[in-house]
Write a structure and sequence with these properties.
- Chains A, B: GO terms for molecular function: metal ion binding; peptidase activity.
- Chains A, B: One of its GO terms (biological process) is proteolysis.
- Chains A, B: InterPro entries: Cyt/Met_Dipeptidase, Peptidase_M20, Peptidase_M20_dimer.
- Chains A, B: This is Peptidase M20 dimerisation domain-containing protein.
- The structure is a homodimer.
- By secondary structure, chain A is α+β, with helices and mostly antiparallel strands.
- The first copy, chain A, has two domains: 351 residues, Zn peptidases (Aminopeptidase); 127 residues, Alpha-Beta Plaits, CATH 3.30.70.
- The first copy, chain A, is 40% helix and 19% strand.
- The first copy, chain A, has a six-stranded mixed sheet with strand order 1-2-6-3-7-17. A four-stranded antiparallel sheet of chain A has the order 11-13-9-14, covered by helices on one side. A three-stranded antiparallel sheet of chain A has the order 4-5-18.
- In chain A, helix 3 crosses helix 16.
- Chain A is globular, with a radius of gyration of 24 Å.
- The relative contact order of chain A is 0.20.
- At the A-B interface, strand 10, helix 10, helix 11, helix 14 and strand 11 of A face strand 10, helix 10, helix 11, helix 14 and strand 11 of B.
Amino acid sequence: MENTMQFASRTTGPASRVVTASSIMNHCQKRRRIQLVPVLRISAILLLTIQFHFSRCYAEAIDLNPVEEWLAEHGDANLQNLIDFVSIPSVSSDHDHAHDVRECAKWLKADLQDAGLENVEILETKGHPSVYADWLRADDPDAPTVLIYGHFDVQPADPVDLWTTPPFEPHVREGKLYGRGASDDKGNMYVPVVAIKAYLKTFKKLPVNVKLLLEGEEEIGSPHMRQLLEHHAAKFAADYAFSADGGMVSPTTPSLCLMLRGAFAMELTLRTADRDMHSGSFGGGVQNPLHAMAHLLASLHDMETGRINVHGYYDDVDDLTEEERADIAKYPVPESERLRHEGVNVSVGEIGFNFYERTWARPTIEVVGMWGGFSGEGIKTVLPREAHAKLVCRTVSSQSADTSRKLIESHLTLAAAKIPGAVLEITRNPFSGSPFKTSKDTPGNTVVAAVLRNLFGREPVGMGMGGSIPVFTLLREILSVETTMLAFGHSDENVHAPDEFGRIDSFRKGEKAYVRLFQGLADAHAASRQGKVEL
Amino acid sequence: MENTMQFASRTTGPASRVVTASSIMNHCQKRRRIQLVPVLRISAILLLTIQFHFSRCYAEAIDLNPVEEWLAEHGDANLQNLIDFVSIPSVSSDHDHAHDVRECAKWLKADLQDAGLENVEILETKGHPSVYADWLRADDPDAPTVLIYGHFDVQPADPVDLWTTPPFEPHVREGKLYGRGASDDKGNMYVPVVAIKAYLKTFKKLPVNVKLLLEGEEEIGSPHMRQLLEHHAAKFAADYAFSADGGMVSPTTPSLCLMLRGAFAMELTLRTADRDMHSGSFGGGVQNPLHAMAHLLASLHDMETGRINVHGYYDDVDDLTEEERADIAKYPVPESERLRHEGVNVSVGEIGFNFYERTWARPTIEVVGMWGGFSGEGIKTVLPREAHAKLVCRTVSSQSADTSRKLIESHLTLAAAKIPGAVLEITRNPFSGSPFKTSKDTPGNTVVAAVLRNLFGREPVGMGMGGSIPVFTLLREILSVETTMLAFGHSDENVHAPDEFGRIDSFRKGEKAYVRLFQGLADAHAASRQGKVEL
């Protein structure tokens, strides 16, 4: 079996590992649209042998109880650490918070050192720093190397007045930790950190080699990640990458996240005058940039069909196959339930698709900000000199950010040229990432599926996410390593919104999952080498 | 001559004054669209007799030099007072500044008492207070009573970062006083106050009876002015009303302002969800309120014709006559010059009209504010739960605010109903005023024209203003007194915008104008009574 052989070959040494990972990647790329195959479609032999092996390990070889006991004993202390971590307003998009992002990196460095990780360092970029740490002294010289990704920067907290408690003064209410980043991604990122700490504090060692790549620029589209990975390719080389950014269907339903959309962003300024004017003295006699912006933005979508009006924008978007649609239809949360939490009655979007199809597999141009003139209390009779908008566009299939961006720019430029008296300026934002698709068949997902099945007592379901995590495609391209998402945030946690929270129970479950993942990977590799398991 | 007789009859006592003023108003209303007649078309006899009389008074009877000397000597002190006045952030639209509006009223009260005015009092309303003061002890028992209107509230100062110096820390640069309200209307309002002070300090008396109505809610559409005038009708009764709010073509060209547009305002909220969402997780799958708002606002105007798309909105708008167009064409400032100051190349608006026609005589729906989502630095991948807009609509001819408002509300409600997943909420703003037109033939304008001609050595030109001053139509309706605008602000003074300024030279000229106005009115009335001048 193709997958089984690849998995086995990964135990033969660093050089061949790269080749092997590369071949996996090639395999994935050839297939272009990797299908949302149900776990049951994975080779039955692989599945059964791994499952057999895991249960054998837990039952006979390795006793993980001391690690789990350490986690239970230190739950409060770990939570307090997370609270300290979330308290740092590491908003990467705001220059005023650049110092806080760096302070957060320093906090992490100290905490990782305290956990027992080694070679902890702050890696500089032209923007915000990232943090690296490793522990590479696994007893088994052939133990796999596991790269864990997460990010410690957060979204802005606006509108701050809609938060029940201040975004950077984390509060625990009903088992949930509230604060900006409590879920995305500080809460989730801290899960593998705690799991590593538990191992090292309990056993003074880990069963695998681990490397951590903790980013400070994910929320602004990882603009320096490519350079960072290229510059430190050897440092980050690994057999597996796992992402602590991502999510899971619900606290009780495990899932494998297999698709993410790409993204790029831009900002629009429409200028009609050198200065703000009196709306009485000039209104009706000069172009109003707010009117012009409304017309410009309205031109992007057909309100009746929900389709994007930009010529050629769908050219590189693959139609969903019947099989993909059927897989998506198996997702266990009805869209009405998903939407109800947000106070939305009905999914609105591209005609002919349901909510999950729209958000996982269809592109979008979203205006994420629009402003101009007076927004204070009451009325100001002003005719402003300019109007602004911020756009974040999501891509799917083989859409490239570059091509899609140019199509939108052409559309906007042509549309603006038809609006008299207004000059359009388009500023490209460095936020950019490619769409990501992976398969349930990858070695990483296969192991994660077994861990989750073991932990939840349920079969994990396949899912997509509408968001973007740019590093995954870069890891694939530069380090030839395929990323598997293993994160414990859920879709109702107000991510990027007021009152963001993370579930403390999910974090605790996640810590156990990572503990078992490390052991499971080590055991599987050892068993494979010893020929005990046919991997 | 109809006008001459009206003017003469106004000297016969308070009761008949009201009847007379009422008849002027009726006369004006009958004509509905008062034409922009050039001053030269005023009865030659009236013009010549008044002009003869003025020059005779100045040359022989009354020596105003001591008053003008006082003004010259106290120029610095008066300017310092104005600076103190402008320093008070009396922003009427912002509840946070309610205290400042009141402090400003108190400051005015003290200053008016210092000027020698009597019965100075702060008049309470359900909103911000107004200030009343009078001096009713003119020697001549038949001296006319002059009501002077101005306002001490100001527009918000946003965007504050575009000001060269802080909006409420007034600075003098190159003969201009910079600060919010330095022109509109504190600077202009203070002109007649200084003129009155100069008279009283010099002669201990005034040649006419004066009353001051200084409002604290003009910038929010004078929502309590009707009640105030009705409640204090006797207090405000007058033969003439002059407005120190308004403007003049340029520092060297005198003008009579004869038309103002009406106004009303509303705020729109489009809500699509209970909470902000992640633009990746939900984008393309739920309605984006920013997209919906763009479509809604875009529906208000036809970008090609510049016309308002609201059904029936032009029904009560009179076409401009050829004569009116010819009068407007005589306005001495080319539209290109007017626009150049604002950095605007070309007038954009309703097809078939030029800039002055558009802004003086055509209605408009202006979006004065539009906002939603993230407007900070960088990017936030948010799909907000709501979008907002503020509209200020200007009316002309016999358009009523009430009817026009309902037409827009119907349009928006229908348009929003076609946008799936969005709920529109329309909030009426109390800002409201009727269109105002007056004639160059009114007694007030006739006297003002003579004063300006005398002071500038040039014939005043007729002009309109696109803004709204709600009190004028209320004074006509409730007090039966016709308002004449005599104000010395100019269109380039960044009114309602950053770096608002007033010209100190124009204020000084304005003070002289008011001094001569008081004396001119007294002399004209005295001469009329004595039969020396055939008025």
